[in-house]
C-alpha cells in the first residue's frame, strides 16, 4: 500500500469527542503531515438518555468552544474541510444549533468566514408513524416491537446519519460541516469515500480512529492521522512521543461493538475477518484486507423521555458488625424503608422505588467484591417518584431509618456519617431511552435536512 500523502486520503482525527481537549500542536503536526480533512465526533449515548431528552450538551460550552476554535483556525489556515458529527452530545436539532452558535461566535472573534453546512437529523412523530405504517421500522435488541405511541412520548428522536450527507455538504461548497446525530465512523469515513477510496479501508479506518488517541499506546497523548488508500490504511499518532502498535489498533474493533469482526453501518456491514495488521515502524500500523458489504440502507433511531424524579441521600458506614452482615442489613433496611413510606404517605406516594447502592462492596457491579467484609462503604439512597416533591418527601420520611437503623432491631440506635446538610439532595428529573430501532430509507438524505450558511458578522 502506498505510504505517501499523494497516494492516500489523509484525515486528521484530533480527539474522540469535541470538548474532550485538543492540543493545537497536535493539530498543527497533522496539518504539516498532509491532512486533507479534519474530522471528529462530538456525541454519544454513553452517558445515558438525559442529553437527548433535554438537548443539553454533556461537555461545557467553554471546553467545546476551546476545541472548536483550534479546529476552525486550522481549517481556515490549511483550506481543508472540517467535519464534526453528533454535535452537542445528542445530535438533536437544538444541540446542533447550540454548536453552530459557538462556531459563529468563534468566526466573529477570529475574523473567519467559513461556509458552514448544518445537517439536521431529528425526526418528527408524524413521519415515524407513517414509516411504521409502511413497515419500515423494526426493533433492535433489547426492544421487541414497534409501539407508535412511544414516538409522541419522546422529547427528542434522532436518526443516525451515514457519510452521504457530509459528502453532499462538501460538494455544495461547505468548509465546515456540523452534523446532527451520526455514526462515529461515518463522519471520519466521509472524505475518503468522497475521494473514491476503498470502502472497506475507509470504514475500518473510521472505526479505528473514532476515539482519537484511544487506538494508540498512550490514549491521552493526542489524536491520530489515518491515511486511506485503495486497499488499506495507515494509522499513526499526532504527538511525536506517542505510538501505535498492532495490538492497540486491532483491539479497537472490540470497543462498543458486540462482534469484533462485523460492524453494522447505515448502508452495509464492515467485515474485518480477513484484515491484516502490520507494524511499519515503532509508531505506525498498516491495515489491509477489510471489506464493506453493501446492505439495505437503514438509520438507527434513538429517542428519550422523562421518567420520574429522584432525591438522594448518602451515608458512610464503618460499623464492623453491619459490614460483616451487609446482605441481611440491606435487605432489612429495604423492607423497612418501603414499609415506612406506605405507612406515612399511603396512596400519595404513588408509584415509587427505593434503591440502596452500597459503594465499596457491590454498588457498581451488584455482586459482592469478595467474601471479606469491607472496612467501610458509602451507602446511597435513591428515591424515584412521579414528582420531585414526592421523591423528597419519601427521602425525608425514610431519613430516621436510613441514618439510624441498627443491624438488629433490639440494639441501641447507631448514627452513620452523612456528608451533607440538608441530607436530601434533589437530583431533578430522570430520563430513559425509549427507542432503539432502525428505519429503512430509500435515500440516505431522506431523513436529513441540510442548510448552508455564511457567518454574517465574519465579513466585517
Helix and strand arrangement:
Elements lengths: L8 E5 L10 H9 L4 E7 L6 H5 L6 H18 L3 E8 L3 H18 L5 E5 L4 H9 L3 E3 L9 H5 L2 E4 L4 H8 L4 E4 L4 H11 L4 H11 L14 E5 L3 E6 L8 H5 L11 E4 L2 E4 L4 E4 L5 E4 L2 E4 L3 E20 L2 H5 L1 H20 L7 E7 L17 E9 L2 H17 L20 E16 L8 E5 L7
Major beta-sheet overview: 10 strands, mixed
What is the CA-based Rg, rounded? 26 Å
Secondary-structure content class: alpha+beta
Strand order of the largest sheet: 12-13-9-8-1-2-3-7-4-19
- Shape call: globular
InterPro entries: AtuA_N
Protein name: Acyclic terpene utilisation N-terminal domain-containing protein
Domain Acyclic terpene utilisation N-terminal: 103-406
Task: Identify the notable features of this structure and list them briefly.
460 residues, alpha+beta, Alpha-Beta Plaits, ten-stranded mixed β-sheet, six-stranded antiparallel β-sheet, 13 helices, 27% strand, globular
Structural summary, described in words:
- The structure is a single chain.
- The chain has 460 residues and is α+β, with helices and mostly antiparallel strands.
- It has 2 domains: 274 residues, no CATH class; 129 residues, Alpha-Beta Plaits (2-Layer Sandwich), CATH 3.30.70.
- It is 31% helix and 27% strand.
- It is built from 13 helices and 19 strands.
- It has a 10-stranded mixed beta sheet with strand order 12-13-9-8-1-2-3-7-4-19, sandwiched between helices. Strands 5, 6, 15, 16, 17 and 18 form a 6-stranded antiparallel beta sheet that branches.
- A hairpin with a 5-residue loop joins β12 and β13.
- α8 packs antiparallel against α9 and α12 packs across α13.
- The longest helix has 20 residues.
- It is globular.
- The N terminus is likely disordered.
